[in-house]
Amino acid sequence: MDKVRFVVLYGGEWINSGEKFKYQYGMSKIISVSRETSYESLHGIISRLVEVNPNECSIKMKFIFNSPEVLAPFEVVTDDDVQVFLCENSDVNTRTSLCVTIERKRRIIPNTEGPDNEFINEDIADVFESDNGNGIGLDNIHESLLSPNDFQNVDVIGADNNDEARNSRQSTSEVPSRRSRVTSSQGIGVKSSTIHGSYTSLESVVNNVKEVGVGDLFPSKEELHFKMQLLSIANHFQFKVKKSTKTLFVMSCIVEDCKWRVRATKLKDCESFRVRKYSPDHTCSLDALHFDHRQASSKLIGHCIKSKFEGTSQSYRPNDIIEDMKKQCGMTLGYNKAWRAREVAMGLARGSPDDSFTILPSYCHMLEMKNPGTVTFIDTDALNRFKYFFMALGPSIEGFKSCIRPVVAVDGTFLKCKHQGTLFIATSLDGNNQVYPLAFGIGDSEND
């Protein structure tokens, strides 16, 4: 299969000098793709290459068409555009670079106009645009960071322009040092499946973290901090944040005389941070190895174990978390931190009770729309706090009227959640003596 090579420039911006358009870039790669590559395939390859989360950011791919006239950059948005670009690069005399710019996606509030959405008020709409205020949410963290497995069908030929900075990581120190046991040859990032996919183990999450290097780009300061926390757990050291501003992020080893340092700065006109300086060698004594893991916060642990709670019958207790952290990561975790990590993981996997209550009216509305005859009811107190809920599906009501024995049994079960309560169900028997569900309800207790 014929392949086409071309240069990808990213981490920069377009500059219009009046006479011509120029892309001032920060990083570059040379890749090789099939001549039959589609737009969707190319978009996915470039997204992984420049390390962006497609759920939070969008990329624009443009190139300069070789012409004696001064033309604005052409944007690649269709399969035909991809073929034009590849044809340009088929001839060595007309090769042109693919220039990539990154833009943060806008939050879109669902349309509240129209008969289908008349019930959605401004308070409910706020749920759809909620954000933690810290840039890209940790819920999506590391989903798009680069992994060698992402390029099984793509030949990465080039390297970053900042070769001197890259090579500086390979130099040896005059003082015996403790270099991180994960090397830069493993690539950058964490496999997303270990955090957001099927659960394997905490050990795999920590061991799959890749070393940081000068020039590495992170979508936000929070993601860089998260990455360094995982590295510190993997290598049993602690660090402290020496300086954190909107444009600068500096970290150092907790041992004052140690040479380990990370310095990152914010790129212009975006939320991304780039590592400018990195000293990966620890010059502190081996006695300074720390196993209590100051960086192992309940939030970080919660993000690592949240897949344990992605199910209706998952039981993962604080003692289980403590045992797993001890066996897999060599960490001694307190019960309180394990409990908080469990709460974080459950919130990420299932959402909070407040969020669930906020979208309950929309859920009831859709039930009534899609199941004609359905009856729902929500009762609140004077402060608009949840009290009772009732639901009976239309088909169940019709069946009860036509062919079900006129005897109703009501039973309840305790809800073992934060706000407790009782779940009620009304059932009957059909002609085959099978249990026939009629209605469901939630109340505070089983009483008159």
UniProtKB/TrEMBL annotation:
<dbReference type="InterPro" id="IPR004332">
    <property type="entry name" value="Transposase_MuDR"/>
</dbReference>
<feature type="region of interest" description="Disordered">
    <location>
        <begin position="159"/>
        <end position="187"/>
    </location>
</feature>
<feature type="domain" description="Transposase MuDR plant">
    <location>
        <begin position="212"/>
        <end position="274"/>
    </location>
</feature>
<dbReference type="Pfam" id="PF03108">
    <property type="entry name" value="DBD_Tnp_Mut"/>
</dbReference>
<protein>
    <recommendedName>
        <fullName>Transposase MuDR plant domain-containing protein</fullName>
    </recommendedName>
</protein>
